[in-house]
Amino acid sequence: MDIPTNLKHKPVVVAEDYGRIDGRSAYDSDAKGLSLGLAQWNDRGRVDISAKVWRYTGEKWSRQSEELPLHRVLDLAILACRAQLYFQEEAYRFPKGYDPEHPQIDRVGLQGDAMTVEVCRRNGHIDEDVQLFQQALARDGELLGERMAVLARILGELGYHG
Questions:
Q1: Which of 36, 55, 117, 135 could be a cystine partner for 13, CB 3.0 to 4.6 Å?
Q2: Cβ atoms of residues 108 and 115 within 8 Å
Q3: pLDDT by residue (tens digit) across 59-116?
Q4: CA 98, CA 94: separation in Å to the nearest integer?
Q5: Kindly report the CA angle at 159 between 154 and 162, in degrees rounded to 5?
C-alpha cells in the first residue's frame, strides 16, 4: 500500500511494507508504513526531519498516524534500550522488580544535560505493572532482540562503537 505523498509530511525514505513486520501485529496491523521525511510543522527557512507511522483504517488514512521529530525517535530508542538493560541485568535483585526507595535507573547525558530514566512511582499500580512489563519483555525477547541486533549492527557500520 502506497503511503500518501500529498499531505503536509513529505516522505523521503519509506518502508511501505511495515504492516508485515509490525511485531505481534504483523500481517494484521493498521500501521501500514513508516517514513522519514520533511516534517509537517516546517516553517519557511527551517526544515526538520520527522519520522511518521502511517495508519490505515481499511477505508482511509487515519488521523491517528503519528509524526515525531527524528531526535525523539532516537530518544525513545535510548529509553527502550536502557529499560531493556535494567530489566535484564538489575531488576532481579529487587523483590518488586525495582527499588521503591531509589526508582532512578539512569541519567543519560544528552545536550549538556541528562535524561532521567526511572520507574514511575506515581503509577498507582506500579508493582503490578512492573511485573506485567517484565513479562512482556520476556515474551517479546526474540522480537526485540532481533531489532536491537540490527540496530547495533547499523550503528557499528555508522562508526558508533560505544
A1: 36
A2: yes
A3: 999 988 898 989 999 999 999 999 999 999 999 999 999 999 999 999 999 999 999 9
A4: 5
A5: 95
Dihedral sign for Cα 107, 48, 64, 23, please.
negative
CB atoms within 10 A of CB 35: 23
What's the helix, strand, coil split of the chain in %, to 5?
35, 25, 40
Cβ(53)–Cβ(25) below 8 Å: no
83 vs 76: CA distance, rounded Å: 10
The C-alpha cell at 118 is 526511572
Q: What is the Cα–Cα distance from 26 to 88, expressed in whole angstroms?
A: 25
Contacts of 113 (CB under 8 A, 6+ apart): none
